[in-house]
Amino acid sequence: MKRLRLFLPLGLFLVLSGFLLVGLRLDPQALPSALIDKPLPTFALPALGQDRVVDQAAVTGEVSLFNVWATWCASCRVEHPFLTRLADAGVPIYGINYKDEDAEALRWLDELGDPYRVSIVDAEGSLGLDLGVYGAPETYVVDTAGVIRYRHVGVVDERVWADILEPIVNELKREQLAGGPL
Fold it and tell me: What whole-number distance in Å separates Cα of residue 69 and Cα of residue 109?
């Protein structure tokens, strides 16, 4: 019995090592979302820098990207120039300014440019919580009916756009034109 106790630390080490190896093989971009194929959560939040409240009805009606961002997010600064290029090319993007200070967010957009049709102030993180946000940046593809069709965790860059998001957006637009399922 005493000899078995000697092997207990080794057994514990092997079990923990197994969990670590499994964890290292997981794709951090492949975080599941319970909201895929479900409507945007109901919300009514202020628009950044504007004297109005925005709800889900005000930001639906076309295939769009919803980008969760914040000034405290270093990765958001990395993806921002590409989002600006997408917006300049006509891609509708709505911002969700997540757990941030309004003055800092307005300064950021003034300095870096504003790719968003409107940026929704989510100071308390309530919309983020309803969306299942893990952190910023996260980007959601939403169809014309306001249904979430895809969620991307991490920076949106040329590769992510070309390989993942653009094909989804284009397929949703084709379905819309064909009068197919949305």
Answer: 11
- Give the pLDDT means over successive 10-residue stretches in the chain (182 positions): 67 64 53 80 97 96 97 97 98 98 98 98 96 95 97 97 98 85 52
pTM of the predicted structure, to 2 decimals: 0.81
Of 102, 94, 86, nearest to 54 by C-alpha is 94
The residues with which 141 forms a beta bridge, in sequence order, are 65, 150
The three-state secondary structure class of 55 is strand
What span, in angstroms and rounded, lies between the C-alpha atoms of 163 and 139? 15
Domains of the chain listed by start with CATH number: 29-178 (3.40.30.10)
**pLDDT tens per residue, range 50-99:** 999 999 999 999 999 999 999 999 999 999 999 999 999 999 999 999 99
- Label each residue of 68-116 as H, E or C: EECCCCHHHHHHHHHHHHHHHCCCCEEEEEECCCHHHHHHHHHHHCCCC
Specify the amino acid at residue 146: G
CB 40 within 8 A of CB 56: yes
User: Would you say 67 and 93 are in contact if contact means Cβ atoms under 8 Å apart?
Assistant: yes
